[in-house]
């Protein structure tokens, strides 16, 4: 798909002294891909992106043969670099954030796992400090209001039915930084909790659920808008009892999370989701835990021990898959080279849609003038070569 130039340069075509000018690459814009395009960054912002010559007066970096895409946005992430968002110190959380930035994720949500109310409230307050500093984009509560039938890597002893009063306590503890909560909406109190979340501007996500098709439709009508890691931790699609998967895929109000690591989903399942929901309703996530970007070993996810072998995380007791070791640059490359998705569709799923879900699309998620200079440089084989966040190189292309 071809795209036209997006904007004019400032000051009669002259570049500022703090400009960074990237030329020669394929640039993925909201209306398509520009061949041999130019992106200009001034300070922390994008000031130009599209076809046409670079402005005069600033050094030009030639990225011929590369792609430039928006920085990745991860709405479901528990940690990385050997560090946990669930229970680590502030410095450890920042280690995880830096690890994911080095893999192209310029915006990340910190996801918690099931715990008691006091711990989750304290942890949300601690993470809120990092949101207010600009290091995180928000807090996601995955649990404790999930089904014991579909608990995955959550401590069954700490699971409980959704309680709107407890939901409100957690929202308040996050001091305005709560972005999403995953619930099994079929449980007692589930629909009332969904309505409460919607009233407070927090995404209600259906996940770790044993709901029927009909119960899922009820939850969507009550205000749920996201499917937590679709296909995983929910009943499989059935021809007589279609369950939550069919309801989530068919409803235009739902964005479906997908973990594209080759372990959580068969390629045919991913293809089905894209075919039925369309690229505009998919969000690639990592669901990463501490081992992402770090390596095999034994880790802790909440209160449970996790063994990571050959990059696959499983509970020590029971063997359930326990998050992933995925980074979004790997998800992008797999989507392009294994799933053979159009690059524009991948960008929608990995940048545009999650930015819109978070209400941040006015600042991030696309290469447009006035937005934060968050971008990723990929080579012709979609290997990551550069990452810029807020106009500064995290990884500078060689």
TrEMBL record:
Q: Which Pfam families match?
A: Amidohydro_1
Stated family? Belongs to the metallo-dependent hydrolases superfamily. NagA family.
Which source organism?
A: Streptomyces qinzhouensis
* Family matches, as InterPro entries: Amidohydro-rel, GlcNAc_6-P_deAcase, Metal-dep_hydrolase_composite, Metal_Hydrolase
This protein's source sits in the domain of life called Bacteria
Q: Could you give the cofactor binding note from the entry?
A: Binds 1 divalent metal cation per subunit.
**Gene behind this chain?**
nagA
User: Which SUPFAM superfamilies does the entry link to?
Assistant: Composite domain of metallo-dependent hydrolases (SSF51338), Metallo-dependent hydrolases (SSF51556)
Question: Would you tell me the protein name for this molecule?
Answer: N-acetylglucosamine-6-phosphate deacetylase
């Amino acid at each position: 798909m071809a795209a036209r130039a997006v904007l004019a340069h400032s000051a009669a075509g002259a570049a500022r002294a703090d400009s960074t000018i990237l030329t020669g690459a394929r640039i993925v814009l909201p209306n398509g891909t520009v061949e041999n395009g130019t992106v200009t960054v001034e300070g922390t912002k994008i000031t130009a992106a599209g076809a046409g010559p670079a402005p005069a007066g600033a050094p030009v970096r030639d990225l011929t043969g590369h792609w430039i895409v928006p920085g990745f946005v991860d709405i479901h992430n528990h940690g990385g670099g050997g560090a946990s968002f669930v229970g680590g110190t502030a410095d450890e959380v920042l280690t995880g954030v830096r690890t994911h930035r080095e893999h192209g994720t310029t915006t990340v949500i910190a996801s918690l796992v099931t715990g008691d109310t006091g711990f989750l409230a304290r942890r949300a307050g601690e993470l809120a400090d990092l949101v207010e500093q600009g290091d995180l984009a928000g807090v996601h509560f995955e649990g404790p209001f999930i089904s014991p039938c579909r608990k995955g890597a959550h401590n069954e002893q700490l699971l409980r039915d959704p309680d709107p009063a407890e939901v409100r306590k957690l929202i308040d503890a996050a001091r305005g930084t709560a972005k999403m909560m995953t619930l099994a909406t079929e449980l007692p109190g589930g629909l009332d909790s969904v309505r409460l979340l919607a009233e407070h501007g927090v995404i209600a996500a259906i996940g770790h659920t044993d709901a029927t098709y009909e119960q899922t439709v009820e939850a969507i009508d009550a205000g749920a808008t996201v499917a937590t890691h679709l296909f995983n931790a929910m009943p499989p699609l059935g021809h007589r009892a279609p369950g939550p998967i069919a309801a989530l895929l068919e409803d235009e109000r739902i964005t479906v999370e997908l973990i594209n690591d080759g372990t959580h989903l068969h390629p045919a399942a991913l293809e089905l989701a894209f075919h039925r929901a369309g690229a505009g309703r998919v969000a690639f996530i990592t669901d990463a835990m501490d081992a992402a970007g770090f390596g095999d070993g034994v880790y802790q996810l909440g209160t449970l021990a996790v063994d990571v072998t050959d990059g696959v995380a499983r509970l020590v007791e029971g063997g359930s898959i326990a998050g992933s070791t995925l980074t979004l640059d790997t998800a992008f490359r797999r989507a392009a080279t294994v799933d053979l998705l159009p690059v524009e569709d991948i960008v929608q799923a990995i940048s545009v849609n999650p930015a819109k879900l978070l209400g941040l699309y006015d600042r991030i998620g696309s290469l447009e003038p006035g937005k934060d200079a968050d971008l990723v440089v990929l080579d012709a084989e979609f290997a990551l070569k550069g990452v810029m966040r807020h106009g500064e190189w995290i990884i500078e292309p060689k």
